[in-house]
Amino acid sequence: QQVQTVAASGRRQDLTANVLAAWVTQDPDAALGYVAATNLSSRELNSVAHAYARVRPAEAALWALDLGPDFRDAKRAALTTAVSSQHEMAGRLLNQIEDPELRKHLQVRAASAKAEYDPDAALEWISAFEREPHYDELHEHVLMNLAQREPQRAARLLAETPDAPASDNVLSRLANVWARTDPEAAESWVRD
Asked: Is 99 helix (H, G, I), strand (E, B) or coil?
């Protein structure tokens, strides 16, 4: 009986989350008015946060920054989605975020998103964070993205910057992608 009740509650929350997300994409202002006046579950609010950030990233980011500490997951959901779609706003947002874990998460997400479009700009952007303890992780995300699309260039960059961190993940992705696109060059690189 109790398991059925919990399962039914979970299905209701999933359904409500889906309906709210659809509503936010159609009429964000009305949906957010409802959200403000309703006590939603964490799952429902996270769904609203993702949907809002997909349709209005800048507004959703401001909305998320105003969420209280009890809504940490929804804040993270909205900000992550906003930064992923409009990575140029990351710098402005990061200055307003005090939570070190959320700040790091958004830096990584923004670096990855920037690297998808312009690896050079991403490398330049992350250089501002060289003194941060997770700089190596930021650098790794940019290199992982570059290795996926331009393995030769990623290999050159690794060779040109011997101090740059190169995790096993980066090296493995680089070798795998390069071996599929140019096996002889990849083999030569591995031997060197």
From this structure: coil
